[in-house]
Recover the amino acids of this structure.
């Protein structure tokens, strides 16, 4: 029979996982944070489009690009919340800006974090804090329901607690909701609370912790067609302007929506029909 102390030690090792080994951050431009077990998986090819192909979001593009350049250069920069209409390039902009700044010979790594994994973000930050690189922590499609406690973990990124946010980490999040929670839920909690002004203050104020709010709004038809024309030019797809306009408008009508995502989906269909390979 093995020594009782050895059995206790083995049980503790199973309960408490070994410290996360330090990855080679120079091996890939981006990583994905996984929690079971905790690790950083390298992403050698990030699915993204060129920054110049993002149409109709010039102000958001310039603001986020300037903020990211300052951060990569070691200067002060804000966390950013990209909110608004679905399919208008919020996550595409984050990935495109990262690629642009990284191409300018800046030491910058993108770390993707899922909303469901926010409770583990403190351990991730402790690991990144000790690294010499600079990191954009990216959380896509961020939102919370009335009984969701994950938002408390997000404060560790935005405020950093007693230690403060790591100097080499900035957070970019995307959401369809400006305050990260449904408007009807805000109104319901206010109307049923003893003190309406305090009922949802903790959750609503979470979005206030992002220094940059970048709004995305539905595109008009000219912008929609310009997006598709830009994709055609970039990937060498030939089509007459009249045919493109007719097909693209019919495509948006069948989808019941007009957005950058719908424009890309039509272009993928068009490229496929012409036998053109599209690699994002």
């Amino acid at each position: 029979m093995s020594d009782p102390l050895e059995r206790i030690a083995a049980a503790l090792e199973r309960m408490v996982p070994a410290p996360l080994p330090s990855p080679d951050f120079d091996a890939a431009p981006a990583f994905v944070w996984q929690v079971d077990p905790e690790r950083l998986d390298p992403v050698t090819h990030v699915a993204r489009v060129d920054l110049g192909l993002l149409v109709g979001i010039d102000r958001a593009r310039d603001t986020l690009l300037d903020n990211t350049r300052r951060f990569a250069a070691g200067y002060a920069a804000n966390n950013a919340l990209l909110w608004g209409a679905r399919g208008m390039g919020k996550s595409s902009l984050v990935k495109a800006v990262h690629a642009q700044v990284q191409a300018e010979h800046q030491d910058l790594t993108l770390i993707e974090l899922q909303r469901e994994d926010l409770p583990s973000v403190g351990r991730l930050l402790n690991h990144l804090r000790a690294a010499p690189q600079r990191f954009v922590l990216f959380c896509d499609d961020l939102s919370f329901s009335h009984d969701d406690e994950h938002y408390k973990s997000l404060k560790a990124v935005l405020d950093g607690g007693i230690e403060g946010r790591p100097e080499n980490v900035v957070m970019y999040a995307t959401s369809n909701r400006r305050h990260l929670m449904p408007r009807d839920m805000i109104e319901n909690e206010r109307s049923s609370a003893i003190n309406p002004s305090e009922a949802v203050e903790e959750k609503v104020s979470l979005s206030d912790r992002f220094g940059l709010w970048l709004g995305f709004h539905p595109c008009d038809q000219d912008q929609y067609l310009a997006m598709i024309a830009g994709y055609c030019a970039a990937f060498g797809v030939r089509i007459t302007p009249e045919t493109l306009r007719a097909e693209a408008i019919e495509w948006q009508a069948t989808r019941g929506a007009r957005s950058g995502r719908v424009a890309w989906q039509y272009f993928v269909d068009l490229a496929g029909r012409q036998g053109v390979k599209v690699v994002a």
User: Anything to note?
Assistant: Strands lie at 30-35, 38-43, 80-84, 108-112, 134-139, 169-175, 212-216. The mean pLDDT is 83. The chain has two domains: 30-216, 221-273.
